[in-house]
Design a protein that fits this description.
By secondary structure, this protein is an alpha/beta fold. It contains 14 helices and 11 strands. The longest helix has 20 residues. It binds pyridoxal-5'-phosphate.
Length: 389
Amino acid sequence: MKPDTRLVHAGREPQKHFGIVNPPVYRASTILFPTMAEFERRQERKYTSFYYGTHGTPTTMALTQALAELSGAHRALVTSSGFSAITQALLPFLRQGDHILVADTVYAPTRMFCQGVLARFGVEATFYDPLAGEAIADLMRPNTRIVYAESPGSQTFEVQDVPAIARAAHRRGAVVLFDNTWATPLNFRAFDHGVDVEIQAATKYLAGHSDLLMGVIAVRDEALFRRVKDGLDEFGDCVSPDLCYATLRGMRTLAVRMRHHERSALEVARWLAGRREVARVLHPALPGDPGHGLWRRDFLGSSSLFGMVLRTDQGRAVAAMLDGMSVFKMGASFGGFESLILPARPERTVRPRPGDGVLIRLHVGLESVDDLIADLDAGFARLNAALER
Ligand SMILES: Cc1ncc(COP(=O)(O)O)c(C=O)c1O
C-alpha cells in the first residue's frame, strides 16, 4: 500500500474496540496478573506486551506500530521529547573510552549533549564535515561506535551523503544513527539508505499541531530494538497514552500536510530567491542549492523548513523586520500548522556557516502563500527603511 493509505489504517483495529474508528486511550500505571506464574514471566512481556505503565499500554502500541509501519522499521519506541529520543538512542551504544562521530550541523542540543554529558562520562565526540561522505572513513577509530547524521541540517540545510557514510561506518562495525525530523519517513527512507536507528521529534510534523512533545526511535532489527528498549528502561522515561493518542491522530493527516508544506515552502523560497535583500536561499529542493544533487538522489520530497542569508549583517534592521511580522510568528520549533520565522545562530567547528549576512530560518505553515508573501514583503520594507535611517 502507498504511504497515504498506510497512514490512514496503521495502528487501528476497530473490530477489537466495538467498531470504534480510533484506538481508545488506555491509561495505566498498575497492570494486573492473574497468576504468580504469569507475574514471574513479566520481564519478557516488556518487549511484546504490557506489564507496567512505563512500558506503555495498547494506545502506545497502536502508535509505535503505526510509526514502525511509516518508517519501514522493525519496531519503534516513543520517548518524552525529540531531544530525549536523541540522548536515549545514543547512550545504549556507548561506554567510557568510546568515540563517536557527529555531523557538525546537528541540532544544537545534540552537540551540547556530546560536548557535555558524553565528555563527562569519558566518551569523545569528533564533529565531522556534513559533506564528508565516504571520507568519513578517515575519521573512524577502532573505538568509534556511532556515526551520527542529520540531513539536511536544520539551520543551514547541508545535505549529507548518508549511504556513503553508512557504508564507511558499517565497514568498521559502527552503528548509524540519523535524525530524520526534517524529511519524515515520507520523504527520506532512512533504512533504505543504510541507517540503523532513525530518530524523529514527533513534536514537529507527526503531531503537527504545536501542542505536544514526543520523540521516536525506530530500529532496523530485533537486536537493536532490545538494546534501545533496555536502555530506555534504565532511565525510566515514558510517554502518556493521551499524547500517544494525539500523535496518532496527527499522523492521519501527515501526508496531506507535508505535501502542502512542501508546495508552499517552495513557492515562498522561490519568491525570496528573487529578492535583492536576500543573498542566498538555503533549500536543497531548489536546483541551484549545493545539496540539490544528493537531495534529488535520496529524498522523495522536501518540507516546510528552510533558510535564507540576508545581504545585511545589521541585527537592528533585521529586528525591525521580524518584530513587525503579522502572519509569521517568532518561536522555536517547526512542523506545526502555523508559520514561524527566527534568526539562526548555528555553532560550527568544521564547516563554516553559509554567507556573512544575518541567517533567517523559516517554517512555512498551512496559511495562504499570498498572505505569507505579503507579510514578508512588508517585512522587507521595514528592513530597508531601517537600513536607510
Ligand atoms: C532536527 C531536530 N531534532 C530534534 C529536535 C528535538 O525535538 P523536541 O523539541 O521534541 O525535543 C528538534 C527540535 O527543534 C529538531 O529541530
